[in-house]
Amino acid sequence: MLIRWFVLAVLFVSLIVNFVDKSILGLAAEPIMKDLGISFTQLGLIGSGFYWSFPIAAILIGAFTDKLGSHRAISYMLLAWSIIQIAGGFFVSGFTTLFLYRSLLGISEGGFGPAAFKEMFVWFPQNMRGKAATIFNSGAWIGAFALTPLIVMFIQMAGWKHTFIYSGLIGLVVFFVWTVFVPKQNSNLESDRQAGTPETKFKWSEFYPILLSRTCILTLLASFGYFFLLTWMSVWMPLYLVKIAGLSATQMGWASASIGGVMVITGLVFGVISDRIYKKTHNLRTARVLIVGSGMSVGALIITTLYLAHSPVWAVIAFGVGTGLASVIASMSHIVMSHQLPERTAVFSGIIVAVQNMAGIISPAITGYIIDIAGKGNVEQGFGNSLITVGSVLLFTSLLYLFVNPDKSLKSKEKIEPAMSNV
Fold first, then answer.
1. Pfam families in the record, alphabetically (predicted)?
2. Which of 101, 241, 364, 369 has the lowest CB atom count within 10 Å?
């Protein structure tokens, strides 16, 4: 059924735009600080404003999505973040307006992941969700890494304000495509849609046992570990490539793009492997936990090798493969949790996103402290220590994830229909 792939394609492009919007601030940090007279401390506060508002919005909008439907929620968010992005180009004039813009962007984008996963699970049966979710998540890697040279070039040519505006206009185009061309329901998989829609009001009594279960806690920790690495990549990797690997700014941009490409390929391969194993075994633990947790552990070990090896080539390989192996949890965590209580998929996805962004708040701050205490004359050692820290967090959480057993869910209404993969 081609329509499901069209829906996925639009969600994929939406996520690319979503992450491009996020990335512009960091990539344009130097001219923004110069134009607005902003200090490093103020820039850090602006970045935190996004991550503080993002997880709160993820949970609230996740609940809203479960109630009113993912298609409508995605429409609202696409429109909201596009308008906010355009407004940022026109109205940002100092610290206060930039902080407000960034916080509003976090609120408008916070619930997109939960809503997108809920929509995907409507269109894709269980034995196709690993590949679909991994394809969707690769949009984040492309927006955050692969498009870096293009974004940097556009900032240099048009300025950061115009970059804000044009990225917002692209978002409006995606909004138009979503609202006009993407169907609001999937008649061929109507049973899946009904399974993902709450028939009763939210009941804490049905929710908290799952929230406190081993499966939920360890899955959330694994997501935290991955995002601890990912935010290190987004904030500190460009500086690492320049100061430690010895690349120029232009070379750094292309290295980031290469890393993004390796991440996409690695993540897709593992996503396909997970789906094939599930198709053969119909065992979530084997396909979504053991394979993914093992890959995360290997990825963590690869990342820690950068403590000793600083060559640009190895940096591209290690960051790309290591993060690519770890990144599969970004999609599998939603699949595992949707199995626990299918009618509350978006709420659980919102909680996952919230926990991930807690790592986004903590990781950059800890890394900065680790580099500072190493001393100005020993930046290389500071970066090395931070990589050991990041790798250790990822390794610890990935090993814990191996103890997850989603097949023993407390309450699962999802019906596995292998034949649906041929629909």
1. MFS_1
2. 369
Write down the H helix ranges in 204-290: 204-211, 214-243, 249-281, 284
Angle at the Cα of 232 from the Cα atoms of 257 and 307, rounded to 5 degrees: 90
Nearest to 331 by CA among 291, 398, 271: 271
Q: How far is CA 416 from CA 3, 266, 279, in A?
A: 21, 27, 10
Distances (CA, A) of 125 to 4, 195, 235, 327, 337: 11, 11, 36, 21, 15
The larger pLDDT score, comparing residue 191 to residue 81, is at 81
What does the pLDDT look like over 163-199, one tens digit per residue? 999 999 999 999 999 999 999 865 455 434 444 444 4
Length, in residues, of the chain: 423
Both tokens of residue 88? 């940022």
Planar angle of CA 231, 237, 239, nearest 5 degrees? 125
Any idea which architecture 2-183+206-408 has in CATH?
Answer: Up-down Bundle (1.20)
Residue 409: φ, ψ to 5° = -70, 150
Q: Nearest Cα to 76, choosing from 124, 110, 52?
A: 110
Distance between CA atoms of 73 and 95, rounded to whole angstroms?
30
pTM attached to this predicted model: 0.74
As given in the structure block, the two tokens for residue 417 are 């229909």
Listed residue (72, 62, 53) closest to 111, CA to CA: 62
Please give the Cα distance from 145 to 253 (Å, whole number).
8
Where do the structural domains in the chain lie, given as residue ranges? Answer: 2-183+206-408
Secondary structure of 170-194 in HEC code, one letter for each residue: HHHHHHHHHHHHCCCCCHHHHHHHH
Distance (Å, whole) CA 344 – CA 365: 33
- Whether pLDDT at 237 is above 90: no
Q: What does the pLDDT read at residue 418?
A: 39
